[in-house]
Amino acid sequence: MPGAKIDPKTMSTIVVEKPSKGFAFASATWHFSTERLPEEARGDLLAVERSYFRRFNDGSGWVLRPLTDGEEIAVGDQIEVRLSIRAKHAPEFTAYSAGHRLEVEAN
């Protein structure tokens, strides 16, 4: 659902009722995702940092060299993305999807 259609005032209330005797268990989860990368690695539970490397063979083996901001890459260059995930507390479950494809625009 597009963010513009979400109204937190009317869509974030959860009501659990149990008219009979006994125990009741309830769980609610609000999932959020975006295609835009965060500006910095901070969060309530997880902090994710991304590092980008050019992968190349220097004749003696494969080497990773950090990419600098604004560095040009060419068709055929191998780029490795390293994710560093820090947690303030041990999460019960974490899912990661790598379904993105890299798009590069020439200036």
Secondary structure elements and pairings:
Layout: H1 8-11, E1 46-57, E2 62-66, E3 78-87
Notable traits:
107 residues, 3-stranded antiparallel beta sheet, mainly beta
What does the model show?
The chain has 107 residues and is mainly beta. The chain has one domain. Helix content is 4%, strand content 25%. The chain has a 3-stranded antiparallel sheet, with no helix packed on it. The longest helix is centred in the first third of the chain and has 4 residues, at 8-11. The model has no long low-confidence stretch (mean pLDDT 81).
Cα gyration radius (Å): 22 Å
Approximately what portion of the residues adopt beta-strand conformation? 25-35%
Instruction: Figure out the total of helices.
Output: 1
The rough form would be described as elongated
Biggest β-sheet, characterized? Answer: 3 strands, antiparallel
Strand order of the largest sheet: 2-1-3
Q: How is this structure best summarized?
A:
With 107 residues, this protein is mainly beta.
